[in-house]
Every structure is written in C-alpha cells, then in structure tokens.
Amino acid sequence: MCIKTKFTNNILNAAITYFWAKVDHLLKLFYQTELIEAGCDEAGRGCLAGPVFAAAVILPEGFYHEKLNDSKQVNEENRYELRTYIEKNAISYHVAMVDHEEIDRINILNASFKAMHLAVDKLKKKAQFLIIDGNRFNKYKRVPHQCIVQGDAEYASIAAASILAKTYRDDFMRRLHDEFPNYKWITNKGYATEEHRKAIEQFGLSPYHRRSFSCSSKQLELDM
Fold it and tell me: How many CA atoms lie within 13 A of 208 on its CB side?
C-alpha cells in the first residue's frame, strides 16, 4: 500500500470514528410523541447548604444543540451558552426552588420532587407527560410520568432541565457567597468539598446550612 493511500485510509477511519462518536452522543428528543412532554431534573440535592432547584422543559420538534448533555458533563461556560439557547428555543420552561428550611422539614428527596412539581406548575404550556431523571418520583396530579436513570444523558429535555436547574442554582449560591464568603460557595456551590467542610469546622454552620445533613463532626452553630 502506498503512503498516500494509507494516509487517506487513516483520515477516513478517523472521520468514521468521529461520526459514530457524535451519533452515539445524540440525545433522544422525546420518550413518546402522543402527549406534550416535559423533561424534569434537579440540582443541589447532595449539597450541605442552600436550596434545591429543579426545572421543567418542553422542547420543540427538531431541537438540537451539539453541546447539550447532562450538566455535570458540560463546563461552566458552555452551560451558560446552553441556558441562553434553551430559553430562546424551548416551547416552555420554568425553574423553581425549595429552600434549606423546607428541605429539613420534609427531607431532601421530597423537596426535590416538590421543586419539580413547582416548575411543572408554572409551565406556560401544560405538560401531559413527564420524564424524570432518576428512579423515583412523587406523582404530579394525574399527569403520567416515566422515571429514567441517567435520563439527563439520554433525553434532550431532561438535559435541558439539568442545565437550567444547575445554572440558576449556581447563580443563587454566588449571591449567598457575598453574604457568607468564608464557605467559598462561589466555587463549591454548597457541595461537601474538603474546603467547605473545613470552613464549617472553623466557622460553624451558617443560617443556610441544612441541619438535617451531616455537615461536620462538630455540627457547630454559627454565632450570629
């Protein structure tokens, strides 16, 4: 085989590999097509501080963005680019939150479901079917739903909801950081990083920490 032919084959093989990688990444647009479908996801469920956010998104036929994926797989710059695109092109979307105090009252799982319910409530177009990221959900009124494990990596509307919930919650935690900068919420967003736990050990719990979570071994209260 001549060098030119070998080089051409290598380019072709690389192109085929790239093509199938892109195809494999393509998100499904709908779980079903008979009913108006909204994808739902939450952000902040595992955090030690702050609210849990959730979003519900109804997408149109033909919706596509090459960077859309589970928000955990997308860098911050691309998440905000996607948020603008989703808000501009979605048929309907809404973002809702349940605060840390209610999380402590009803537990984080129920708070996550409630945030999703609140988001669906505010959709300008009524959803007739819901697809939910995860394996559990509290039924919303009489609307049928389907739970999908890792659905944010499989369905575009769930991925879009993931992006909206994540970016709106990050913005909220940045504002809380201005009030309590010692916990570095501007970077850790309230998650249980080593930096965050050490800050809790040093400064105690802020008013925004979830008391029902094991935030630190000392469980100190911040002296206000």
Answer: 22
Q: What number does CATH give the domain 30-177?
A: 3.30.420.10
3-state class (DSSP) for residue 13: helix
User: Between helices 76-89 and 156-179, what is the axis angle to 10°?
Assistant: 120
> At a CB cut-off of 8 Å and minimum separation 6, what does 171 contact?
none
Q: Is the dihedral of CA 63, 64, 67, 72 positive or negative?
A: positive
What ranges in the chain are assigned the alpha helix state H? 3-25, 76-89, 100-106, 108-121, 156-179, 185-188, 194-203
108 φ, ψ (degrees, to nearest 5): -65, -35
Burial class (CB in 10 A: 0-12, 13-18, 19+), 209: buried
CB 185 within 8 A of CB 176: yes
Tell me: the pLDDT tens digits for 165-189? 999 999 999 999 999 999 999 999 9
pTM of the model: 0.85
Cβ count near 129 (within 10 Å) = 17
* CA dist., res. 34 & res. 147, Å (int): 18
The overall average pLDDT reported for the chain is 89
Model confidence pLDDT, tens digit, residues 2-50: 555 555 555 544 433 333 334 345 899 999 999 999 999 999 999 999 9
